[in-house]
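Note to self: keep these together.
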Amino acid sequence: MKLRLFLFTVLLTACSTDTPPIPPTSDSGTPMDSGLADSGVEPMCDNGERDGDESAIDCGGSCDPCADGENCTAADDCQSNVCERGRCLVPSCTDEVRNGDETGVDCGGDCDLCGGGQPCTSNDECLSGACRSGMCTMSSCEDGRLNGDETDIDCGGDTCPACDGGLDCVDRDDCVSLICASGTCTMPACNDRVQNQDETSVDCGGATCPACRDGLACMVDADCEGMRCFDGGCVSCEDRIQNAEETAVDCGGPLCDPCADGESCLVDGDCAGGACEGNLCVSCSDGELNQDETDVDCGGATCAGCRDGLACLVDGDCSATGATCAGGSCVSCTDRVRNRDETDVDCGGSICAGCTTGLLCTVDADCASNICDPPTMRCNAPGCGDGVLNGAETDLDCGGGSCLGCDPGEACVLPRDCLSGVCTGGTCDAPSCTDGVRNGGETDVDCGGPTACPRCADRQLCSVDGDCTAGICSIPPGRCGTFSGCHWGLIAQETQFSDATIQGLFTSNGHSFDVLNNNGTSAVHSSDPAVLSRYTHIVFHEHDRTLTAAEQTALNNWIMAGGRLIVTGYDSLGSPTDSALASVVRCASPGDGPFSGSLTVVDATHPIALGPAQTFTMGQTLTSGSTDHDQCTPTAGAVRIVSVSSSSKVQIAEGIGGAGGMVVYWNGNGSTSGPLVDWVGTSGTQPALQNLFVNTLNHLCTGP
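Structure:
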């Protein structure tokens, strides 16, 4: 503020030393509709609630005036006597109201000296330098003449008040607007790039100009676009800074959105998951064992039940239908392990459904047919126990494809006619440890089980620790050894999974695999439930064809039982349009195109985008290895993670069935019968696409 001291010697020598009180202020300010209505209840003014005609809690209306920044409906609701935009403003030297420490209207105190006729308490509050009987006397700045160092009549220069717009000036200090252009003061405005009027920052804030953006100066909330003034600066829930009441950057507290998992918090309400534990937000999808979970993100009173093989305390901690908690782990009739009182894997006994033909049984009730064959203790098919060699049977009541396989020494035509799966010279052989068939109680081909066969190597199928060379059977997935990754079946239409680079993405990240090449157009692997049942995790490549009905049924049943599937391939949904595969991968409106290689990350919060190979950010752009993609719109709960034009490049559906089934669709990825270019690393944004694939493998292997 420019100090203006004008001395009138004659007045100073005769000035009274009395300091009469300042007259009371008069009401001023324009009423503002803040949307606050009188509740019709008598105001209490001290109950911590807004009631009656109060404009804010316990102030305004019939109560005491409100402090700066509080809600108001009229000027007299405010201590400053200024109500604008529904908020009480801080006193200023341009609000045309005597408030703050002013002795007159917008003068005295911290404002400019007062002109003649304005209230005063001492000589140094007056422009004339003389305070008489509580009023400033007139000065030469009020004589209607251009004199002294005034730049225009009664304004400008070192002594008189600054000039309004349109009056003469010499420099910026001569003008109220602080702008002297070609010898004339401009009118103050909200776009003149100068902080003037009652602006709190350049061209914003105060009663006249628009509110200020984040980071600019303010005095009350109403000065800010986000209606939050903190420590003299405008803040918001979008300024990428932790400030005000936020518990983490732009989240938490009473005003911002709740925080994501892992962000700082003080109370449960600060968290999107509704739980604050150890000052960090936790939930049932944060990848951590917390709250009362019995395993990571499952079990307990809050989260969903755990899938088979995960830790539990009681049966209610488990998700699968009919699941129980046995030995601290969830087991069920879909865990692909023979446990509890099952007579064969996931069937028989008092809990699971009856077993199908050929599976082990103890009593008739263990079989779907209600026929348990006494000599073999296996379930027989209906009609195969009539004591007559008939139908397609190759021997009495056995063989032929519909009846139970025949015992060693009985007649056969094909291996399937025999319980051992070995038919030599028209006669069924007894199971052996060298016949290349899983039989005779073996848990995998020629190993394991209560037999004299060798123990199984790591990654081979097992039921108990004793089946394994390493003495460890990891359940699930019911395979020998201890390992960080999973065992995958890699089904390729031709030989794409023979590629050493793709195989390296599995082995270098702790996974193992079986390569099942030449699935062909007849789907020799993907339509066979027996092949699918050997794996809990499968990558399935196909192109330029449509799924068979048997293939669709087999894949859907496998996923519903907890299988986790990745589907990829050029023209897998379009040319020709494959509605059957679209149903499996949860895509609506399948078809050919888009023909683009421009990819965008559209969900950076999903675990697939978060690592471990690479973290992807929202809006990050990538280039695919090929430009031929198909139309896929997520449906049935699927989530798009990466987009290509208006279609999904990568999407996932989770929680399918009661055992945690998942299916990922990876659009495009090659041409005709060529290599899977996104994964072999020869084109596109690399190694980002390979890292995204590794992230996907990890999530399907470890996700709940």
